Amino acid sequence: MAIRVAVIGTGAISRVQHLPSLRALGDRVEVVAVADLSAESAASAAAEFGVASWYTDVAELLERERPDLVTLATPPIAHKEAAIAALDAGAWVLSEKPPTLSLADYDEIMAHEGENGPYAAYIFQHRFGSAAERLRTLIAEGSLGRPLVAKCDTLWYRDPSYFAVPWRAKWATEGGGPTMGHGIHQMDMLLSLLGEWTDVTAVMSTLARETETEDVSFAVVRFASGALCSITNSLLSPRETSQVRIDFEHATVEVEHLYGYGNAHWTWTPAPHVAPETAAAWAPTDDVPSSTHVPQFTQFVDSMERGERPRVSGADGRRVMELAAGMYKSALTGRAVARDELSPADPFYASMPGGDPVGATARIHAGTIRSARA
């Protein structure tokens, strides 16, 4: 029997990714309803994708349709309430990034999961391309040796008009700037490869855009393995690129793309002591791109059918939220932050600006946006 799916939010990401990706799953799923605060948007999406029902109220949709799965394609501020409502109605949840606005919100959603489901997971599609999957296997096998040095860059460009959308780059509605809304994709892929992080030192500024939050962030992260990584997130970079590079004992592996990669975007460089036939076996044989949600949606439905917790949920999905919180705390307090500091007693557990959004904005803006205007 097909899994009954409801899609909440019918804006661009829903029409470009969620609904086409669900359609690609064929008869494994049936999209029974969509919902949006805008009746016009909900109705047009339903017509475009052949969905029988549309709603403007999530509670009404859940009560009438009883979906097995709810996908969330809404602004970040709406994730927590909709996820909890869906879980309480017995539906599994697959939500857009960032998962929530804070670690506290993330944990509150987890508290509504069942012991054996339903579960909530989050869309970080770059984990699921074939090259990243192959690299993850090689790391687990130890084939490349220890990871030593890494970098993770999300260098994008957003002009001032981008921030005219009311919820963008505000603490209360997006949770942060490019650290939360943009670079979090590459950061999640990095963490899925390198594992647990232990401490972070970060700086942030608002250099050129009229926002509450940062438009640039830098960080140095130490991993439990001992590896060191630099992270850069920018919305001010005219030559846009997304890059992850990891130097292992036996190889450098790197990817450069923009919003999605295929195998051709990856470079596998062996160290001089590695035999050519050994290096030749590293590259993936399949070529599954990360530019669509289809691979993650497929694996999520697989998990539903097996009754297993999906990837990028629970502790696995929480790790990147911890890193973001650690970066904000470090930048706003001016010191290194250990991962184990971010307990429920810490103000940065409850909100990325540490419970003081006005003060956070002032510290991030200090000497940057004002001097740029001058």
TrEMBL record:
Domain GFO/IDH/MocA-like oxidoreductase residue range list: 134-253
Domain Gfo/Idh/MocA-like oxidoreductase N-terminal: 3-117
A UniProt-annotated Pfam family: GFO_IDH_MocA
NAD is among the record's keywords: yes
Keywords recorded for this protein, A-Z: NAD
GO molecular function: nucleotide binding
Domain of life: Bacteria
PANTHER family listed in its UniProt record: D-GLUCOSIDE 3-DEHYDROGENASE, UDP-N-ACETYL-2-AMINO-2-DEOXY-D-GLUCURONATE OXIDASE
Name of the featured protein: Oxidoreductase
